[in-house]
Amino acid sequence: xTERTTRRKTSRFRGVAAEERQAxxxxxxxxxxxxxxxxxxxxxxxxxxxxxxxxxxxxxxxxSFANRExxxxxxxxxxxxxxxxxxxxxxxxxxxxxxxxxxxGLTTLFASMRDDPRLxxxxxxxxxxxxxxxxxxxxxxxxxxxxxxQTLVDSFYPADRRGGLDTNLIAHGLVGACMNLVMYxxxxxxxxxxxxxxxxxxxxxxxxxxxxxxxxxxxxxAGPGRRVTRRR
Amino acid sequence: xTERTTRRKTSRFRGVAAEERQAxxxxxxxxxxxxxxxxxxxxxxxxxxxxxxxxxxxxxxxxSFANRExxxxxxxxxxxxxxxxxxxxxxxxxxxxxxxxxxxGLTTLFASMRDDPRLxxxxxxxxxxxxxxxxxxxxxxxxxxxxxxQTLVDSFYPADRRGGLDTNLIAHGLVGACMNLVMYxxxxxxxxxxxxxxxxxxxxxxxxxxxxxxxxxxxxxAGPGRRVTRRR
DNA sequence: TATGTTTGACAATGACGTATGTCAATATTC
DNA sequence: GAATATTGACATACGTCATTGTCAAACATA
Lengths: 232, 232
Known about the structure:
2 copies of one chain form a homodimer. Chain A is mostly helical. Chain A is built from 9 helices and 2 strands; from the N terminus they run E-E-H-H-H-H-H-H-H-H-H. Chain A has a two-stranded antiparallel sheet. Chain A has helices at 18-40, 47-54, 58-64, 68-91, 98-115, 118-125, 132-156, 167-187, 194-212; strands spanning 12-13, 16-17.
C-alpha cells in the first residue's frame, strides 16, 4: 500500500533540463570516443577510458549507448557527417569544371584529414573491423561518397562518351586512391605539401576525363577502340 | 648426483625428423591462421580456435609463435609473398607496354582476391589494426608494391615527361584504387565480371599515361635526363 | 528544513582469453 | 621389453574488461 511516493521530478539541474543534460553527456561521450578510438584504435579502447576522458561514469555510458560498438557507430556518423558537410561547402562555390571541383573537394578532404589525426584511423581503418553492422554502415557511407563522385563524373561526361567505362567502378577506385594516399601521407608525417598531394590526385581525375571524352580537357583522339597503341 | 641420464634423442618420429615435424606444425598453424583470421577477422580469432583448426594443441602454438600477433605477421608475409610471386609471374611474359602489363598484373591480382576470400580481410583490413609493428610491416609491403609500380611507370615515362607529377604519390593512389575496388567488388558478391573490373582499372593506368605523355610512345625527345625508354 | 533526485566514486559479478601446466597414451630407441 | 620422447586432451592460474550494483554526497523542490 505505498505506491504513493509523490514522485517529484527535478525539472532542471544546475540550470539545464534533464533532456538537455542527457544530450550533453551523449555529446561528451562521442567526443571522448573520437579521441580514444582515434588515438589507440577501437580494439584497444575500453569503456572505462572513454568515460574517464569524458569525465563521466560508466553508468552514463550505458544510458546513451548499448555498448562500445554503438558508440563507435555514433562517432563514425558524426565525423563523416562533418566531413561531408565541409566538402559540400567547398564544392558549391567552385567553378563547374572537373579540375577546379576536384581540387576544391580534395583540398578540403586532405586538409581535414591532416588537421584531425583521429579521422584516418576511425574512418579508414577501424571501421571495417568493429562488427558486421558497422562494416555495412561504412560501405553505405563510402558508397555514398562514391555515388556523389559518380554523379559528378556522369554529369561531365554523357553516357555516350565514356568509352565503355563503368563510372561506378571508377568512382570507387578514385575513392580508394584518396584513402590510401591519406594513409601514405599521414604515415610519412605529411611531408609532401598539401597542394602537391591534391594536385596529383586531381590529375588522376583530369586524366580520366581527358582520356575518355576530353570535354574541357586536353583533347584526345576519340577513335573507336583506339586505345594506347598496342605495340606490335 | 645423477645428471647422467643419457639424454637420448628421438631423431625421427613417424618417419620425419624433429626439425621437419616442427616446420610442418608451423605451416599448419599458418594455414589455420589464414583460415580463421580470414573468416572472422583477427580480433575475433582465438588461439584455441586456430589450434583446433590446425589440429594441434596450444602448446605447439607457442612453440612456433610468441602470440597471436606473431602468427598474424607470419600469415601476412606468407600471403603477400604468394601474391607477389603470382603477379611477377604474370608480368614477366607480358608485352612491354602499359596497357598489357597493367592488365596482366591486375588480372592476377583481382583473380587471386576473388578466388581466396581470406585475402581481402587479412591483407587490406585487419593488418592495420593488429599492432604498431604489424602496421609497419604492412606499410613496408604496400610500399613495396607501390615501388614496383612506380618503377614501371618511371620506365615508361621519363622524368621530363611527367608533367610535374610525383610518381610516388600516383603509385600509392593507384594501389589504393585497387584495394578499394577489391573490397567493393567482394562486398557486392563479385557481380561484375573480372574483365570489366580489370579493364576499368587498366584505363585508369592508361589514362594517366596518355595524359602525361601522350600514347605510350614516349619517343622522348630525349632530353638531358635520359631514361631507359623501355620500348623497342 | 525535509524529502526525493541527480550525480560521482567505486565495488561486485561474470565472461572470456592467454599462457602454462598436468597426465596418460603412444611411439621410438636401446 | 624398458626407458625416454613425443603427442593430445584437458585443466589451471591469471588478468582484463563489460556490465550492473551500492552508497553517500551534492542538489532541487516544497
